[in-house]
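YM 10:42: SalK sequence, as discussed on the call
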Amino acid sequence: MTSTSALPKNAGRQCHHVINPYHSTHYFAPEFAVELAKAGVENRRAAYFAARGAAMGAVGAGTIAATFYNFNHDLIAQHVPHVWSVTTPEAVLEARLRAADATLRRLLGAEAVESPEMAEAAGLALRAAEGCARQARPLYAAHADLPVPDAPHLAYWHAATLLREHRGDGHLMALLDAELDGLEALVTHTASGRGMSYQGVMATRGWSEEDWRAAQERLRTRGLLDAEGELTEAGAELRKDLERRTDRLDRAPYEHLGAEGVARLTELATKFAAAAVNAGAFPAEMFGK
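YM 10:58: structure's back
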């Protein structure tokens, strides 16, 4: 049943920001490398491209570049489609779910994983995901076709994945409308102090220092970045506008859940996300400036 209760300002964004870490924990976990290696993928970068893209099938580098947006296509092409010659999307999806299970059990502990609150969070997040739309959202749509796991902590992880990719697909629409390419999006996000650090970008996205400087120069020409690489007033306003546009494109699942449901899901998601962060789920050097 769709709720018509009005949402407070930024309620959907705030809910997303505490749901997303629950989904993302496995990407940084040792269990991820172990399980993907069992599936035949030993290179960590190949594992990420395969795991996040597997729901779309054995797609090529172009599809990964289009849907992931801020990775250098040349880096992706080093691993895709070769990765599909050593494994299958089905095997990768199974390995990914095993990794998520082991990671969450280690980070949160059995009591939290098996708690009534976890089952409640799963139910709320799945209900929110009922409000998502497949149109023009390839990563969300592909994951929406996957079965919901039985275990509550994995059902919640699956729902968190759906909500993450739904918002992410919408965010790419906003980036395109703002005429920011993948690297420019990274540069401005990092300059805002909220995105991945420069070190994190350079270690994972496949861009060179020359690429980074060229993107900075393009942004300076547009008046979005200053000489020191910081956002100008116009640049800061653009980043705020991107979030507002993304909120608008992502409002449906949270409107579907309703204000009370969003508030409760945010409360529960905050608890689980904080526990994961406090357990060391994310490397500090990857985020912030």
